[in-house]
Amino acid sequence: EKGGYEHFMLKEIFEQPRSIADSMRGRVRADEAHLQLGGLRNYLDKLADSKRIVIIGCGTSWHAGLVAEYLFEELARINVEVEYASEFRYRNPIIKENDIVIAISQSGETADTLAAIELAKSKGAIIFGVCNVVGSSIARATHAGAYTHAGPEIGVASTKAFTAQVTVLAIMALAAAQRKGTISEELYRQLLIELENIPDKVEEVLQSAAKIKEIAFIFTYARNFIYLGRGLNFPVALEGALKLKEISYIHAEGYPAAEMKHGPIALIDEDMPVVFLATKDSSYDKIVSNIQEVKARKGRVIAIVTAGDTLIPTMVDFVIEIPKTHEMLMPLLSVIPLQLLSYYVAVMRGRNVDQPRNLAKSVTVE
Ligand code: M6R
């Protein structure tokens, strides 16, 4: 059942070209500049008209929510708040009648997320679900939603569910933006074409596996890691750090790169590996100066860069190239090397990758 792979996690990482394509199937038609999300058909106006979206989730699903915050705000100009389900449910959150809540959950069984939905519902919110498991408790508790079609995810560390979530949330944001008229016809078309090209580009990223394995070998016994990114790559930094913690048990922190000088920079020395998400996008120049700050303190830098970048490779210790795409979709590519890096480090440390200690695949108790 592992399809020839040593672990489910590796199989699931390599399945992503397909699971992303499956999550778009029947929904994205770039040639006709057309999108449709069957499950949201009757709610699209409400989504486009909403003044506020609250996104709830836990762990990796919460990270997908942070990516969606950028997407909905930038494309559909809707105010978004992203909340840990566990915090949201124990506050007295302000929910107005036309607020939309989007609950993200791979398993559809996470206790805190389910309880947060019930609370928001009791206050009159409309709830959309983005779940992977059909018929799960969360899918049933929502008013509407769109499934991710990632297929069963067995590894405790979430990989293909994350990219499927981001895919579906991007489609939702694009659909809302088009309905609202906040996106130009040209950008809309461009993003649909870019979306359709993502599976092939993920396939390209996966070809760097051997190189990433070599980097993992060099850093197998690191005691700490820092992951830095800006914009849409900031949630990816958090996700990369979470993956490493979960399966290798190495302490790792993800930060927005600009926050580094507000504290974490004190940690940088020649023993500190720093993973930079440094793709060519609107924050490229800023990231370049953050890399300089780390190198000036002898940090060891692994940079995820856009193919063809000639500057960053001269500055850092290791580079992993990924193909170009539109900035809005970059997390779908930039997360892949981080999944592989954590996987190989964990394997080299002899960890139980698919079932790390102390963790369960779905957290059905609070
Ligand atoms: O099934 P869910 O998406 O609701 O699960 C949420 C988290 O428990 C989950 O993402 C967890 O953080 C993963 N182990 C991350 O790899």
From TrEMBL:
<comment type="function">
    <text>Catalyzes the first step in hexosamine metabolism, converting fructose-6P into glucosamine-6P using glutamine as a nitrogen source.</text>
</comment>
<keyword id="KW-0032">Aminotransferase</keyword>
<feature type="active site" description="For Fru-6P isomerization activity">
    <location>
        <position position="361"/>
    </location>
</feature>
<feature type="domain" description="SIS">
    <location>
        <begin position="215"/>
        <end position="356"/>
    </location>
</feature>
<dbReference type="GO" id="GO:0097367">
    <property type="term" value="F:carbohydrate derivative binding"/>
</dbReference>
<dbReference type="GO" id="GO:0006047">
    <property type="term" value="P:UDP-N-acetylglucosamine metabolic process"/>
</dbReference>
<dbReference type="GO" id="GO:0005975">
    <property type="term" value="P:carbohydrate metabolic process"/>
</dbReference>
<comment type="subunit">
    <text>Homodimer.</text>
</comment>
<dbReference type="GO" id="GO:0006487">
    <property type="term" value="P:protein N-linked glycosylation"/>
</dbReference>
<dbReference type="GO" id="GO:0046349">
    <property type="term" value="P:amino sugar biosynthetic process"/>
</dbReference>
<dbReference type="GO" id="GO:0006002">
    <property type="term" value="P:fructose 6-phosphate metabolic process"/>
</dbReference>
<dbReference type="GO" id="GO:0005829">
    <property type="term" value="C:cytosol"/>
</dbReference>
<keyword id="KW-0315">Glutamine amidotransferase</keyword>
<protein>
    <recommendedName>
        <fullName>Glutamine--fructose-6-phosphate aminotransferase [isomerizing]</fullName>
        <ecNumber>2.6.1.16</ecNumber>
    </recommendedName>
</protein>
<keyword id="KW-0963">Cytoplasm</keyword>
<feature type="domain" description="SIS">
    <location>
        <begin position="43"/>
        <end position="182"/>
    </location>
</feature>
<dbReference type="GO" id="GO:0004360">
    <property type="term" value="F:glutamine-fructose-6-phosphate transaminase (isomerizing) activity"/>
</dbReference>
<keyword id="KW-0677">Repeat</keyword>
<keyword id="KW-0808">Transferase</keyword>
